[in-house]
């Protein structure tokens, strides 16, 4: 295929993302993981499904980065996931080290790639990857908002008994308890959600969205969500590979947008061949802006923690 995407971390999120990329015939895929045999085994298994799934994507597994050379996109899922009782932020010191190592390899082997970060705590990991890669800010993008808004859309569709395809939802802010779902900008077949559901029901769905990751961790017990996170990362990759200019909520490094500086925060961005091609600024009410500022404060705290951990 013309395009090549490397997925780092061949665990639950990484392998599922590889499967979706291949089955959508978007690109060849290289799966990289430190675990010996794991990426090779999963890549071979996925390749052997190709005749049945009807695609010709090449899928390769490796423990080093040689075969990932000159990838168009690198999706980083390497790291440890949450266990019950853990917050995303509890993962910071382990995943920071992994992210630093991995991104340095990515920058060396695929200097022109666009990086999509999935590992948690997401916003903090974006900062690590941005610093370690030296890439411009349009080429370091965090996956959070697409997942959070997909969760919100699922709950809206179930509540109203309508197709998920009729739902649109916007979720801003960090990928944590302070995320900011925006009911005012969420619609069903173009109708604002606020006209379809009472405020208390909307608040219930918003809270379930905020707790969406923890709900799944609580059920799985051995790890965190992976089907929807992989779908979300692949939706972003598809917009970039096909240069569709799709507007999606992603973590982007802000430079004054929404009154926030030097922080990765979830905002609507336009995704195309150059990665983040625009940051869309929507008008927020005072209350919404305050919620976004609170979310930015939480990301700033994590950024400070990274500094502390780096010594
Ligand atoms: N280089 C490459 N791969 C690594 C490295 C490294 N330095 N360190 C760990 N890994 C691999 C592990 O060997 C494992 O196969 O990352 C993979 C992670 O897979 P899982 O444990 O299944 O975790 P997963 O559910 O995929 O979540 C990965 O994404 O959603 C986030 O919070 C989640 O941070 C977590 C990440």
Order of helices and strands: EHEHEEHEHEHEEEHHHEEEH
Provide the spatial order of strands within the biggest beta sheet: 3-2-1-4-5-6
Low-confidence parts: none
Ligand identities = adenosine-5-diphosphoribose
Q: How does CATH name the architecture of the largest domain?
A: Alpha-Beta Complex
Describe the largest sheet: 6 strands, parallel
- How much of the polypeptide forms β-strand, as a percent range? 15-25%
Number of domains: 2
The level-1 CATH class of the largest domain: Alpha Beta
Compute the average pLDDT: 96
Structural class: alpha/beta
Distance between the termini: 44 Å
CATH superfamily of the largest domain: Lactate dehydrogenase/glycoside hydrolase, family 4, C-terminal
Number of helical runs?
9
- What is the share of helical residues? 40-55%
Q: Shape, please?
A: globular
The count of β-strands is 12
- Cα radius of gyration in angstroms: 19 Å
CATH topology of the largest domain: L-2-Hydroxyisocaproate Dehydrogenase, Chain A, domain 2
């Amino acid at each position: 295929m013309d395009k090549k995407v490397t997925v780092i971390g061949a665990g639950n999120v990484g392998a599922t993302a590889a499967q979706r990329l291949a089955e959508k015939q978007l690109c060849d895929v290289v799966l990289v993981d430190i675990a010996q045999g794991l990426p090779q085994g999963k890549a071979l298994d996925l390749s052997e499904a190709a005749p049945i799934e009807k695609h010709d994507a090449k899928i390769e597994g490796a423990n080093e980065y040689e075969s990932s050379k000159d990838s168009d996109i690198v999706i980083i899922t390497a790291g440890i996931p949450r266990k019950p009782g853990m917050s995303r932020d509890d993962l910071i010191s382990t995943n920071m080290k992994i992210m630093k190592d991995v991104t340095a390899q990515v920058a060396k082997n695929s200097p022109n790639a666009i990086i999509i970060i999935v590992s948690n705590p997401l916003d903090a990991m974006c900062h690590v990857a941005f610093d370690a890669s030296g890439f411009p800010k349009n080429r370091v993008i965090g996956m959070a908002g697409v997942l959070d808004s997909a969760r919100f859309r699922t709950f809206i569709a179930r509540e109203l008994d309508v197709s998920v395809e009729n739902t649109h939802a916007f979720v801003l802010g960090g990928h944590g308890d302070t995320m900011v779902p925006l009911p005012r900008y969420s619609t069903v077949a173009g109708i604002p959600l606020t006209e379809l559901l009472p405020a208390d029901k909307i608040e219930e769905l918003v809270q379930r969205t905020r707790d969406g990751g923890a709900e799944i961790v609580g059920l799985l017990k051995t790890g965190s969500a992976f089907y929807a996170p992989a779908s979300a990362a692949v939706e972003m990759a598809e917009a970039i590979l096909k240069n569709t200019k799709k507007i999606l909520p992603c973590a982007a490094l802000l430079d004054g947008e929404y009154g926030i500086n030097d922080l990765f925060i979830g905002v609507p961005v336009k995704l195309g061949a150059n990665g983040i091609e625009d940051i869309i600024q929507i008008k927020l009410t005072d209350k919404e802006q305050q919620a976004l500022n609170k979310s930015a404060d939480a990301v700033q705290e994590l950024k400070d923690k990274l500094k502390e951990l780096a010594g």
